[in-house]
Amino acid sequence: MDRYLRLFVGAVLAACLAGQDVWALDNSVDYFDLGNQAYQHGEFAQARQYYEQALENARASGNRGEEGSVLSNLGVTSQTLGDYTKSREYYEQSLTIAKAMGDQEMVGTILTNLALLSEALHDQPRAREYYEQTLAFKKALGDQAGEGKILNQLGGVSHALGDYGKAIKYYEQSLAIEKALGDRAGEGTSLYNLGIVFEKLNYVRAREYYEQSLAIKKELGDRAGEGRVLGNLGIIIRYLGNPTKATKYHKEALAIAKAQGDQAGESLNLNNLGLASEDIGDYDMARDYVKQSLAISRSLHDRAKEGVSLRNLGNVYAHLRDYAKAREYQEQSLLIAKDLGDREMESAALNSLGGIYDDIGDYARALEYYNTSLTMIRTQGDKPGEAVGLNNLGKVSNHLGDYAKAHEYIEQSLTLAKALGERWNEATYLNNLGTVSRDIGDYTKALEYYLKSLAIANEVGKS
Questions:
Q1: What string of DSSP letters covers 86-151?
Q2: 26, 117, 206, 437: which is deepest, by most CB within 10 A?
Q3: What are the C-alpha distances in Å from 178 to residues 34, 186, 192, 194, 223?
Q4: What is the model's pLDDT at position 30?
Q5: What secondary structure letter does DSSP report for 22?
Q6: pLDDT one-digit tens code per residue, 141-164
Q7: In angstroms, how far apart are the furthest CA atoms of the chain?
Q8: By percentage, how much of the chain surpasses pLDDT 70?
Q9: Buried-state track 438-459, b at ≥16 Cβ within 10 A, e below 16
């Protein structure tokens, strides 16, 4: 017999033994509690049915507090079931009641739920509005722990909107509160989030934040968190020009993901191992890693990660000079990016397609893809991506004989690389400036650039 039916039958028997009118039992059964139990057991459709009955009873009895609570739970349940329109309706009705009753704590909870719902709908501006309102309530209540959590959420939304300055401000405020409260877990999370923001701004700073976060995750025995930080730290180390060391971090992260049965984490780290192998120049190994990652992403029906793996596989095939396959994978990645509305993935796929046409000598087509990609990258505030895009425009301009433009683009790349602390890319861009100078016959300047590039490459190789 269904566990909830057993509870209901039990209530009927108890009513009979007490001499109560069984037909009046509907108002005495705690449907709210039955809904909570169903939700906790993952039976969300059943939970919604119980909450709807509880709502009817609460309204019939005029219990506004109960009505507000049931409406809030109906909002959560409807959101879990993917009925976002109904979820918003329930939350807004619950919010009206909470405000009328002066229940500040409930108002803060519902505003947070509305913010989370807005994030699920990719409506980041509205999510930020709700979080800002929630923050005001948390401050009014003197709830410092809650304030720290909402500041962290505001940091995430600001990051998603490309407002990195605000994201850093919110995360730093959250971090200060967590330190004052001795909340080590929260502190580790804020440091991790700061590392994510600085991935777009300064790799050295990103590494510092990740290393601090990693120390806390290890101290707390948070293996899942440790794995996430190790994975991101590996990415930064690779960006800083040490793919061999990055491989070590990714293998550690992969081992943790496997031990935890985290298939999504496993896929992510296999993908990162592929990128590190690609940087080392072991393209066969890179292909094997990325293919494994792609297979897991598809088994999980994770379209976003599938798109990333397809793009990375395309890049590997470009290195292997199989341009037909490379283009096929990039076009599949581009299609997924457009389907998902993922502008970052779309700009990366366009850039990679530009690289393919650059390699086969179709420079006009390459220029077209590079320009479209760079325009999108700039709207995202992605400085590392902008540096790569400018360098690519410089290389193709050099192929087309527009040496002044080539020099200008690569100089801009070099400036960004220095600001980001990208020593390996700095060496690459200096080398490319040397090539431009060589092609225009300025061999003295070319030698100067090549020697600077070599010095940095040797320095990075020893680190």
A1: HHHHHHHHHHHHHHHHT-HHHHHHHHHHHHHHHHHTT-HHHHHHHHHHHHHHHHHHT-HHHHHHHH
A2: 206
A3: 37, 6, 13, 14, 21
A4: 82
A5: G
A6: 899 999 999 999 999 999 988 888
A7: 105
A8: 93
A9: eeeeeeebbeebbebbeebbee
Cβ count within 10 A of residue 42: 9
Task: Give domain 385-463's CATH number out of 1.10.10.10, 1.20.58.760, 1.10.260.40, 1.25.40.10.
Answer: 1.25.40.10
CA–CA separation, 145 and 139 (whole Å) = 10
Residue 341 pLDDT exceeds 70: yes
Rounded distance, CA 319 to CA 65, Å? 64
φ/ψ of residue 440, rounded to 5: -95, 0
> Token pair for residue 323?
């341009």
C-beta of residue 267 within 8 angstroms of C-beta of residue 297: yes
Q: How far apart are CA 406 and CA 396, in angstroms?
A: 8
d(Cα 194, Cα 202) in Å, to the nearest integer?
11
What are the structure tokens assigned to 396, written together? 């193709």
Cα end-to-end span (Å), the chain = 66
Q: How far apart are CA 211 and CA 218, in angstroms?
A: 11
**Residues 65, 67: Cα–Cα separation, whole Å:** 5
Q: Give Cα separations from 109 to 140, 377, 383 (angstroms).
A: 14, 36, 36
Residue 98 identity: A
Q: Which of 18-22, 61-65, 103-107, 275-279 has the highest mean pLDDT?
A: 275-279
pLDDT in tens, 34-43: 888 888 888 9
CA dist 177 and 164 (Å) reads 20
- d(C-alpha 286, C-alpha 82), whole Å: 37
Q: Helix crossing, 403-420 with 383-399: angle to 10°?
A: 160
Query: What residue ranges do the domains of the chain occupy?
Result: 385-463
For residue 192, give Cα distances in angstroms to 226, 275, 281: 10, 22, 30
Sign of CA dihedral 433, 436, 437, 443: positive
Residue type (1 letter), 148:
G
Q: What confidence category does residue 24 fall into, taking pLDDT thresholds of 50, 70 and 90? A: very low
